[in-house]
Amino acid sequence: MERVSTGIKELDRMIGGYPRNRTMLLTGTTGSGKTILGLHFINQGCLDGKKCAIIATEETPEDIIAQGESLGMPLSKYDKKGILGIERVYDERAEYIKDVLEFDVTDIDELQSNIIGLLERIPKGTEIVLMDNIGVFTLNMSPNEFRAQFDALVHGLAKKNITAMLILDSASDERMGGIAAYSVYGVLKTSVKDNPYTGSRERILEILKIRNTKIPIDPARFDVTSSGIALLTK
């Protein structure tokens, strides 16, 4: 199976890259490095000359670009060249809520549950997609509705021959019963844990599943440096 680089050399050596034209799920707690892991994937896609897109549901494009460039990823250059597109879903959600509240409307379920509609936000010809974070659409959804929409999203991405990473925060994933993991080709999880031996907190990356891939059983520790994520071998 053809692979796409993760953008992190140590991770590529561990798993061989992400399977091409398949969807990966990345879950994790707040501050555990989810977005940065996703930005490595996007940055590498841009470096490889692939057309990339970010569906940003929790940050503005300006903030995403600033975060990437603080880690040495020239996202603004890719944006200007047309290699990278960043959809302003967060901005639109915020403006919609503002308009709804001005008219004293409290039912905003439609805004929070249109996961399938994200397919329409992907520019034609896109090869690499990062969606961060689809958890914002699950607040008023049942697990059954979420599974149906999530399956449709994954199926739609496959039909478009897109290699995708979908980020789902741990709280939303748990609220939906962890069912998203069954629909995707692979699952990664980031977390922050206390090390009882050193007394310090550590960031952890676990490879929970990648079909047709030999994956490490043990979790990997990592640091976030000025160049992004660095896996620790000791």
What's the arrangement of secondary structure elements?
Blueprint: E1 3-4, H1 9-15, E2 18-19, E3 23-28, H2 34-47, E4 52-56, H3 61-70, H4 75-81, E5 84-87, H5 89-102, H6 109-113, E6 128-132, H7 143-159, E7 163-169, H8 170-175, E8 186-194, E9 201-210, E10 220-225, E11 228-232
Parallel strand pairs: 3-7, 3-8, 4-5, 4-6, 6-7
Antiparallel strand pairs: 1-2, 8-9, 9-10, 10-11
What's a quick, concise take on this entry?
The protein is an alpha/beta fold and 234 residues long. It has helices at 9-15, 34-47, 61-70, 75-81, 89-102, 109-113, 143-159, 170-175; strands spanning 3-4, 18-19, 23-28, 52-56, 84-87, 128-132, 163-169, 186-194, 201-210, 220-225, 228-232.
Outline the structure in words.
This protein has 234 residues and is an alpha/beta fold. The strands form 2 sheets. It has a 9-stranded mixed sheet with strand order 5-4-6-7-3-8-9-10-11. It is globular and about 45 Å long. It starts with a strand and ends with a strand. It contains 8 helices and 11 strands. Helix content is 34%, strand content 26%. The protein has a single domain, classed as P-loop containing nucleotide triphosphate hydrolases (Rossmann fold), CATH 3.40.50.
